[in-house]
């Protein structure tokens, strides 16, 4: 009998968790496992704001996929996914087609611009390693150019961050630490630099504990960040952004750097493949299967699950993606072995820590609020845990964050 | 009796040499010495190609002027020189006017574009610290952007260097070492990168020993540099450059980075002040005085002296500027002390070394040709010597180059 083909699309938190668990759980003779990813490396999406600000080198944020997979069991294919053909049980890649018996779609998120004009053209998004290092270099080039112009253009020293959600706030924390370094590097007067955060919602970190939100905002404000809360971006232009002001008025905020950190959506391959979805996220069964496709599992940012306690979807996080990856591996192994009863997913919320730069953070861990250096410490524990779950202690030693003190 | 005012314009090799020698030679009661410079730091002009390529940090290339002047004797004024009014014996700065009894004009060079269209707008010049770090960041940003575009634009990975004189060749040597690092940093295929040097003269390093020119060119060619010798740049555009091809034809070389390293001229303050000059260089007396102005000394890149052996002007170098600075200080001290007989300048040519990157070079030292690591070693000795002459052993220890092996 032919071994079943298991195809995993994406080597992010979810996909790589599935691959590394399956290679432990299944014998060489039980299945062929294929892992498809655009790059030959995995990157820590939740650390990209650091690489974007330039406070952590992007090579610290990524590692070779080959270093965590067992090549006796998993075949790695570096390619881009175009489309899933669920009827014919195959995946169309840029370079080839792959037939599957079991498919895991773990393609992660894309930036969502909500149709705001100009964002795609004139704003950066913190979405991958390529983008992160481009943002870092773009900002640095603005500072490097400042003293070379006859008429000094202060908008070169202005950075607008669109969105005060987790990514926005964490990026602001890094920027606030990075800007003094940039000022020193390029002999720029610190007081000429502006970091402006524009958020349409009535609060930063919507849904987060108000006390922690206050802490985060006043911490960042003390470090020079200017918040424009309850302010919607109407348009991005080559000169900056246009925001709504009152009912009918608009205001221009000039800035040579605009980073859009306000929205993510599931990968557009989801819609291209005909899955029913909301912003690229498929409402999956509790077993993580796509509705109507018992051989297709969708996990991570491309999946949508309802938190029944509050009747709202769980936000897409690395934590949930990895937990889904674990269960997904288990369920696929069960199917491969002919078991029909699959396990259902329950989210074990270990808490959330939002970094405010290297030495401060706010968070709720095991139900307890923490701030300051204790929270910053916990953030590093969380970051190292992701490495540990996928690559074990060796990966933690290689890529972990140990600047604890 | 009022002490005479000695005003030194420029804290480059020449000006700083005058200031540091005068502060040793004159007592506090003999003269008031003013040193005027745009920045509060001195930079090693001859190291700027390294900062521009990104192989040496720009902070290594500069030091605080205050660290080498004796503030009991020299008053430092950070300001920009607008004009010298030799009739009224005063200097007009942006922020104030300064009367002088003795003036030293040591304002250095500017980039000379020979009227080639577009060079000012679209090409960089390796002319100061601000420009150097902008070039470094510009190149880096091109590499950082490469993988972010749907359609890869290979011209982002192309660097045109206009001119194969000393600056051009030395910059190429650094670039050839830097490019593999950039490729690694941004996951760029090394073979896609092009470094093209365009030189209008019939040879690289015109006037230099042909055997050494051959060595330099073939060394750089082995490292991937493409030479277009005997090719004149007609125009720089936002896309690259237009060069002459044959009699009437032109050819476009597309490149997102164009660095113009083919010409320097004296500071334009020279002409603004009404001194008779050729490209900003005043043909000075052998005593270094400006013709007709016995109280004005002009040294370094703003001065022009004929090498009588070959009846051609000495090229403007740091070596000659420093030697002129030494004599200029001596002559001014003599005038302050009422002596009328001034010394005449004779150039003591210690040789020339042209760097080809960190570990190779070509040169003639004490009349002997050298290449390879020996020449690279000598280049560092030359670089350290400039520090030693101005700031003594302390400055060499602080800013010297000791990566000898």
TrEMBL record, chains A, B:
Reported cofactor(s): FAD
Origin organism lineage: Bacteria, Bacillati, Bacillota, Bacilli, Bacillales
Source organism of the structure: Bacillus carboniphilus
Keyword Flavoprotein: yes
Assigned protein family: Belongs to the NADH dehydrogenase family.
A Pfam family per the record: Pyr_redox_2
Record key words, sorted: FAD, Flavoprotein, Oxidoreductase
Domain FAD/NAD(P)-binding stretches: 5-325
Keyword Flavoprotein set for record: yes
Gene3D superfamilies (alphabetical): 3.50.50.100
Protein name (record): NAD(P)/FAD-dependent oxidoreductase
InterPro entries per UniProt: FAD/NAD-bd_sf, FAD/NAD-binding_dom, NADH-Q_oxidoreductase
